[in-house]
Design brief:
Blueprint lengths: L2 H9 L2 H27 L1 H8 L3 H29 L2 H17 L7 H15 L2 H12 L5 H30 L1 H22 L5 H13 L7 H7 L2 H33 L3 H29 L2 H21 L5 H15 L3 H9 L6 H30 L2 E3 L2 E3 L2 H8 L1 H13 L8
Helix pairs in contact: 2-5, 2-7, 2-8, 2-9, 2-12, 4-6, 4-17, 5-6, 5-9, 7-8, 7-17, 8-9, 8-13, 8-16, 12-13, 12-16, 12-17, 12-18, 12-19, 13-15, 14-15, 14-19, 16-17, 17-18
Length: about 425
């Protein structure tokens, strides 16, 4: 079955397509909720586990260290077996990872194991949604779908930043993880009831996949992807664009706002959420603009350059009025959102039977950037300024500025990398 025929069939099932997308996107929503959760209870968990920021950053970063290499297997499994029988077990694994933290064992290793399982299952989240989008939607809509998916996922992060700080005061941080486990069960049920059996056009594609690689091993499609230098560039650029969210939004942002601006715990979480709101609005906007204009490379030039300028302003001017601070974080998220284009560009670089592997490889590199920089920031904090009081780990404003100055520098490096993308792209 040819690509146009597939598109004809899939276009006739738009109601089912949106139902399938919605179910998978709910899992991505849940995955981002639990990804961000440790950053909203940083002091409470550090105090409970009696650990330094370097150690806690590494334990939290295990999510990324597992998530990143699992992208390889996520792409291969989705290319070969489809979405239903892969994403349901993935949701169960994330739920178990959240439940692990509830075990009454006061050890940072237990938290690390929970993050390991959470990262393992979450590896199938965004790639699973985008894989199903390639099955059920026409390719001309993929940038828009990528943007909308990112928006829904970031709603999960925003919800975590807004709800968890308030819940900690009334319920305690461990009960917040109990609530996350219950959300996981709901996500699993939605996937089970809403993702149908594999459609006929996807069965045809899968048969072609098996025929193409019948004389090779299961990693043949993946190896064809990683030999493409453009994939590596897209992954690094995407990772750098996501870096402010992974480093600042997911982990260190709330503590930074509390320390530098002397803002209370709950209000600090709301301020940090502005970077996610920027993504929430920017992702579908840039995805739609990309689909309409085809100016993918140009949008990445604009994105990386603008984000580097805004990050320099954010770090240098640490006494901004509150409205300006919120606007700056919103704009950082908004101009970083063209990152969603990187996944579509990756899929376009590869044969149709390795699209999931291509997007997974890009996502692997995106995640590695955040996973590497999270503990680096913690290391700088520990060695620049480490003032501990009553088992609560607090740092000076100057220490935070030194540690987070890595963000604008890395973003400008991302701008330089865009020059390496194929000049055949606009």
């Amino acid at each position: 079955m040819g690509e146009e025929e597939i598109n004809q069939y899939s276009n006739g099932n738009q109601k089912i397509a949106w139902l399938v997308w919605s179910a998978a996107a709910c899992f991505y929503f849940y995955e981002l909720f639990v990804r961000v959760a440790p950053g909203t209870m940083l002091q409470e968990m550090q105090s409970y586990y009696h650990t330094s920021s370097t150690t806690f950053g590494m334990a939290s970063g295990i999510y990324y260290y597992v998530y990143a290499p699992m992208q390889i297997f996520a792409g291969i499994l989705l290319d070969r077996f489809g979405g239903r029988y892969i994403m349901i077990p993935a949701s169960i694994i994330v739920t178990i990872g959240c439940a692990c933290i509830l075990i009454p064992w006061n050890s940072i290793w237990l938290f690390a194991i929970g993050r390991l399982l959470t990262g393992f299952g979450s590896a199938f989240g965004f790639i699973g949604v985008m894989y199903l989008a390639t099955v059920w939607f026409h390719k001309k809509h993929l940038s828009s779908i990528s943007g909308i998916t990112t928006t829904l996922g970031f709603l999960g992060a925003i919800l975590a930043l807004k709800v968890i700080p308030y819940s900690i005061n009334t319920l305690g941080w461990k009960n917040c993880w109990l609530g996350a486990s219950i959300l996981g069960l709901i996500s699993t049920a939605i996937l089970y009831f809403c993702i149908p059996e594999t459609p006929i056009w996807e069965k045809k594609r899968r048969e072609a996949h098996f025929e193409e690689f019948a004389s090779n091993h299961a990693f043949s499609g993946f190896f064809s992807v990683i030999k493409n230098k453009q994939i590596w560039l897209l992954g690094l650029i995407g990772g750098i664009l996501y870096m402010p969210t992974a480093v600042f939004g997911d982990l260190w942002g709330k503590e930074y706002i509390e320390t530098v601006y002397y803002i209370a715990n709950e209000d600090a979480g709301l301020i940090v959420s502005m970077i996610y709101i920027g993504w929430l609005i920017g992702a579908p906007f840039w995805g739609f603009l990309s689909d309409r204009t085809g100016l993918k490379r140009s949008l990445l030039f604009f994105s990386t350059f603008s984000a580097s300028i805004l990050l320099f302003i954010f770090i240098l001017y640490d006494s901004m009025p509150l409205p300006s601070l919120k606007a700056c974080l919103f704009l950082i998220g908004f101009v970083s959102a063209p990152q969603v284009i990187c996944f579509v560009m990756g899929a376009e670089e590869n044969v149709k039977n390795a699209k999931a592997s291509a997007m997974a490889t890009v996502n692997m590199l995106v995640t590695l950037v955040g996973g590497i920089l999270q503990p680096i920031v913690g290391y700088i904090l520990d060695h620049v300024c480490n003032n501990q009081t009553q088992n609560l780990y607090r740092y000076s404003a100057q220490g935070f500025k030194w540690a987070l100055s890595i963000m604008p520098i890395a973003m400008f490096f991302g701008f330089l990398l865009v020059f390496g993308l194929s000049k055949g792209r606009k």
